[in-house]
Amino acid sequence: ENIFYYLSEAGVLVFILNIVMILFSYNIAKIFSSNLKQRKCIAIECGLQNGTLAVFVATQIFNEVIYMIPTAAYALIMYLTSFLFIYILRRST
């Protein structure tokens, strides 16, 4: 019921974390990969990973909902930023 409050608290940080991860993985993939399709795939995978796993771990290890807030915010924002990145990639080709 307080998802918008929680997103306002943790949303900016997890948004920045996800954007940095996508850009970082894309640029690292430039060094180790010669194919543009591989770089795009690696960036998308790095942008989408860990969200669901973090939610699972937070619910299994901690009994308080307060530990679930950053992971749930990351999982929601992770999909939005990844879809935005995919949209940008599709428009550029």
**Discrete helix count:** 4
Sheet-strand content, in percent, reads under 5%
Largest sheet properties: none
Taking Cα atoms only, what radius of gyration do you get, to the nearest Å? 15 Å
Report how far apart the termini are.
40 Å
Estimate the global geometry from the Cα principal axes: elongated
The tally of beta strands, per DSSP, is: 0
Order of helices and strands: HHHH
Low-confidence stretches: none
Rounded mean pLDDT score = 83
- Helix residue percentage: over 70%
Helix-strand makeup class: mainly alpha
Polypeptide structure, described:
With 93 residues, the chain is mainly α. The chain contains four helices and no strands. Helix 1 packs antiparallel against helix 2 and helix 3 runs antiparallel to helix 4. The longest helix is centred in the N-terminal third of the chain and has 30 residues. It starts with a helix and ends with a helix.
